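Attaching the record inline, Q. Sequence:
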Amino acid sequence: MMHYLPGPAETRGLSTEALRGAFLVDGLFVPGRVVMRFIDLDRVVVGGVVPLGAPLRLTAPPEMAADSFAERREIGVLNVGGPGAVSVGGERYALGTRDGLYIGRGSGDPGFESVDPADPARFYLVSYPAHASYPTTYLAHADADATELGTAEQANRRVLRKYFHPDGIQTAQLVMGVTELMPGSVWNTMPAHTHARRTEVYLYFAVPDDAVVFHMLGQPGETRHLVMRDGQVALSPGWSVHSGCGTRAYSFCWAMGGENQAFADMQGVAMGDLR
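Structure, as predicted:
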């Protein structure tokens, strides 16, 4: 079933529950299952895979009209759980916590497993349609292109790590990475911006049980918020700002798809223009 998002005019009048139903994706990480959500946001698919004793395989549902999930798609994988492995085209890739794997178009149905069912891997998946095929490539968390941003005075010291992007692991349209907040810092992506030519999805993870993140969305002059918890995804159309503030430090995986892959292609919003 396709998940459709409201436009900016509809969003202004939504109740809290309607806003959460439209822009928040929950329940991706179910032990022993593959969970996929198809979203009408540049045709993105987000999912979670939590293998226990037996490996799990990602297959194409009938609605895709494809012989395999990756027949016409590329997939970004991030492990936010215990050690695991992903098998693609006869190759097995070991993924530790926060390691990534890019799976190219035409790679068949990948398989997922956990090293220890008592500490299972939690594989987060982001998939976009792909117009070209690129090789499946593993990236360790420590090897990602890392940039330190922010200041302690602004409570936004953070490390932005690019996993799949034009200057690194090549993709058809997916751009994906991880931002990690430093202890004592809580703000991300502020000052805010929009992406007129791309859409974005945020997976919030490493959010402590006693903490939440307030994710900001909406047009700059009509902002709304979602209260996010660990393992939840926020959807961001091209017209919406996307930033967040937590009650404690946290991490999030950002992924984008659309017309281009230019990381700096964004429309900045002055602090005085936010409402």
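The longest helix spans residues 16-23. Residues 72 and 105 are 6 Å apart (CA to CA).

More tomorrow.
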